Amino acid sequence: MPEQISSPSNKRVLWLRSLHSPRGRQEAGAFLVEGPHLLEAALDAHLRPRLIVYDDEALSRTQQGTALLGRIGQAAASGVEILLATAPAIERASETQTPQGVVATIALADVSAEKTRARRRGRSRPLMLVLDSVTDPGNVGTLLRSALAADVDEVLLSPGCADPLAPKVVRAGSGAHFTLPIRAGLAWGEISRQLRGAPAVEQIILADATGRRAYDTIDMTKRTAIIVSNEAHGASVEAQRLGAELVNIPMWNKVESLNAAIAGSVILFEAARQRRVADTTSRTFEDD
Question: Smallest Cα–Cα separation from 45: which of 209, 173, 198, 186?
Fold first, then answer.
């Protein structure tokens, strides 16, 4: 039977709480995963948590939680540290106000861009996503989730973006961190080198309300980098220096702009749509 934590002041609970801050994550070499869905996503990606702390009564109330209890048992058998905890202890460890009965930690090294890329299937992915000082954690997490859904190759985060491993970003990313290569805190010179490396991007587009060309008139089946900037301040000087073509999202009813997560997602899914059409057309010709 695992050890049980009952006090919100337990040293393990306080250690988990320290992972709410960038400094705590760096010192621990780990980040926080909250809730059954995210823990399942990590396990599905064959990641081995450092620590799992759970409330068996809370998890046993749902079908998803009951299934997760079995996987927690398997993790314990493989050597993962497992601790039972009361609801107040888990609430103290969590960043959310309504914890879902389980928190866990994943090593920072296990979600490095290199390790994440190695876990992906080796098909060609023409899209890159660059976040230009996107500071809102919810927007960053949503963009990461959309990037995974649109099969982006990598996401590059400039200085000034929200920390991609902050708890709110991880929750909004809904598991994207475990299978999507993410490079954070890159200087603009490094971003330029990444975009022009092998394989080099053929075009760079930047979502901007002043753009003269509609986003859906761009051929994004070729190697393309999409830049999404801070919605309040617009594109940085450094982003503009990359020579990106400005594109707009046509809108009705005098709506002037969308937030960064929605605008970026709209363009990402247009790129995904174009790729599906191209793949379907290619298969049709092959069949003929």
Answer: 173
CATH topology of domain 121-287: Alpha/beta knot (3.40.1280)
For 10-19, the CB contacts below 8 A with 24+ separation are 10/89, 12/51, 12/53, 12/83, 13/53, 13/85, 13/89, 13/92, 13/93, 16/51, 16/53, 16/93, 16/103, 16/105, 17/92, 17/93, 19/105, 19/167
Query: What does the alpha-carbon distance between residue 278 and residue 238 come to, in Å, rounded to a whole number?
Result: 33
End-to-end CA distance of the chain: 62
Summarised one tens digit per residue, pLDDT across range 18-66 is: 999 999 999 999 999 999 999 999 999 999 999 999 999 999 999 999 9
Place of tokens 């299978």: 179
Specify the pLDDT at position 98.
Answer: 83
Buried b (16+ CB within 10 A) or exposed e, 249-276: beeeeeeeebebbbbbbebbebbbebbe
Locate the domains of the chain by residue range. Answer: 4-111, 121-287
C-beta of residue 51 within 8 angstroms of C-beta of residue 116: no
AA identity, residue 265: S
CA atoms of 112 and 221, how far apart (whole Å): 27
* Domain topology for 4-111: 60s Ribosomal Protein L30; Chain: A; (3.30.1330)
pLDDT, position 282: 65
Q: In sequence order, what are the beta bridge partners of 154? A: 128
Taking the C-alpha atoms of residue 18 and residue 31, their distance in angstroms, rounded to an integer, is 9
Ranges of the chain with pLDDT below 70: 1, 282-288
